[in-house]
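// run 5 | inverse folding | seed 20
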């Protein structure tokens, strides 16, 4: 069975007044059917270019995008238009038609593809029921909250029974509570309808909430990918550590500026020791450590504990402490200096 989306050696360059800009530099990734796949990076990393290349709204400069076994570069213009019907998009700005009712917005893609109005309205009402907005069918977008408008946009995206859903910063304009409700809806759609979802975001909290796999993009390159649990527990790239450990969503430093020259992050797994590991380490080495942060995060439905410690100055003692923690099934990651 082919993967839903395969990206092979994808490149994209733009010609500007300043010269050639490499927006994507040899991206390789695979999205399996049924995945909720997160693609994350900071502004300017190349995420938006990548999402436009996935449905050939932007033609890649090199490499290949294969959707459900079909290389998009080999399709005729007509075949590509047909394939795009099965690739739905949801945007940060909702993109609703303000002069049309909620129901008419949802029905629009059905009508323009030839469905009779009565059939379109019947399916439109079913889709509004899916997103919990049947009572708003006759309302106009301006009468809705931001979260309700995004629900209408999701219903519209589902109208043509897509193979997969591209969500480009779909929750960035929403408050945290509304974001949580939209992510819950997307997860429900994935589970009940079997629709693969690719979620483009700069927020690690969004990825941790619903994605099962994640790719990290930095400066047009794929620097890390894997399951969300793997990347959360032990980010291998500098960008991954900044996104997982640093509070990059606000741009502020997450940790207090203390004198420690070495800080580590430990993650408690389900098979981690239940002993009071930090207290026992302090007793064994007779040297205190600073607990700079202790937190629990929801990672794809599972609570995961983490701590960030400031170690003493002695280099040998640092290594012995790290070995002590790893012997107890704790994952230890260096904290970047600029977090």
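// decoded
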């Amino acid at each position: 069975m082919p993967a839903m989306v395969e990206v092979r050696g994808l490149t994209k360059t733009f010609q500007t007044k300043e010269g050639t800009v490499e927006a994507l530099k040899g991206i390789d990734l695979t999205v399996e059917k049924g995945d909720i796949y997160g693609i994350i990076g900071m502004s300017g990393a190349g995420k938006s270019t990548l999402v436009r290349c996935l449905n050939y709204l932007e033609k890649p400069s090199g490499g290949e995008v294969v959707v459900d076994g079909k290389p998009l570069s080999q399709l005729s213009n007509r075949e590509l238009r047909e394939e795009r019907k099965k690739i739905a998009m949801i945007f940060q700005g909702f993109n609703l038609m303000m002069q049309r009712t909620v129901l008419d917005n949802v029905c629009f893609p059905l009508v323009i593809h030839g469905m009779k109005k009565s059939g379109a309205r019947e399916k439109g009402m079913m889709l509004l029921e899916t997103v919990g907005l049947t009572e708003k069918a006759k309302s106009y977008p301006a009468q809705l909250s931001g979260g309700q408008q995004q629900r209408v946009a999701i219903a519209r995206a589902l109208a043509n029974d897509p193979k997969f859903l591209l969500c480009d910063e779909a929750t960035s304009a929403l408050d945290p509570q509304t974001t949580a409700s939209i992510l819950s809806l997307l997860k429900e759609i994935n589970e009940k309808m079997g629709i693969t979802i690719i979620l483009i975001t700069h927020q690690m909290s969004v990825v941790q909430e619903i994605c099962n796999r994640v790719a990290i993009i930095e400066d047009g390159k794929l620097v890390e990918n894997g399951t969300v649990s793997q990347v959360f527990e032990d980010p291998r790239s500098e960008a991954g550590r900044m996104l997982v450990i640093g509070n990059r969503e606000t741009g502020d430093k997450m940790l207090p500026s203390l004198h420690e020259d070495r800080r580590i992050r430990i993650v408690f797994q389900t098979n981690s020791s239940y002993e009071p590991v930090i207290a026992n380490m302090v007793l064994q080495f007779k040297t205190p450590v600073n607990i700079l942060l202790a937190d629990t995060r929801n990672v794809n439905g599972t609570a995961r504990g983490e701590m960030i410690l400031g170690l003493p100055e002695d280099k040998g003692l640092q290594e012995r402490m790290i070995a002590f923690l790893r012997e107890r099934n704790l994952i230890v990651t260096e904290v970047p200096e600029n977090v």
